[in-house]
């Protein structure tokens, strides 16, 4: 099975709407609608077909029917989350209820539409999903750039950086690390330069964006 975390090598200029629904008439109608609105649209009759053929690295969103053969749309949402794919999802169903809607929205769905829905409702939902995906991609690119900067730091510079973001003064850092205050100032300058931080506040923001999983380890 292809890895849903894979990224496209070259991102097409137009966003794509992926449609997963076992109703052929619905797939065709939605495909025609989105193509008329200058979106790329690709339709699949099952989640298996979707995982095998879809380029999940593309900018876009997923229209997902709740009731599908095999795994349900809600369970597939959870599966994609476990695999690290965060493509925005809009659910469609002819048999929706409040618990089902609550579960989908709590898990991050953009919208939950009951069939038959108005064209404008689905277009509005897709517009919101596309904006969410754009924001997610900008955030991901920013975090990757900051992580790349942090990789340039030496182990000692990482220690100094983490002490700085804790609010320690140079004298306190020197005492804690067992080095001279002059050496702390040198490392601190290197940290600010390598992290491209314009102020301590900017450095704190960048370290927070790194998160625990990507923050450089302190030796």
What does this 3D model show about the protein?
The chain is α/β, with parallel strands linked by helices and 219 residues long. It has nine helices and five strands, in the order βαβαβαβαβααααα. Strands 2-1-3-4-5 form a five-stranded parallel sheet, sandwiched between helices. α6 crosses α8 (181-194), α6 (155-165) crosses α9 (200-214) and α7 (170-177) packs across α8 (181-194). It is elongated and about 75 Å long. It starts with 15 loop residues before the first strand and ends in a 5-residue tail after the last helix. Mean pLDDT is 89; it is low at 4-11.
By secondary-structure content and strand pairing, the structural class works out as alpha/beta
* Low-pLDDT regions: 4-11
Number of helices: 9
Q: What is the overall pLDDT average?
A: 89
Give me the count of strands.
5
**Largest β-sheet summary:** 5 strands, parallel
- How is the quaternary structure best described? single chain
Strand order of the largest sheet: 2-1-3-4-5
What fraction of the residues are assigned to beta strands by DSSP?
5-15%
- Helical content class: 40-55%
| Strand and helix order | EHEHEHEHEHHHHH
Q: What is the radius of gyration?
A: 23 Å
Q: Could you say which overall geometry the principal axes of the C-alpha atoms support?
A: elongated
Spatial separation of the terminal alpha carbons? 39 Å
Give a nutshell description of this structure.
The chain is built from nine helices and five strands; from the N terminus they run βαβαβαβαβααααα. By secondary structure, the chain is an alpha/beta fold.
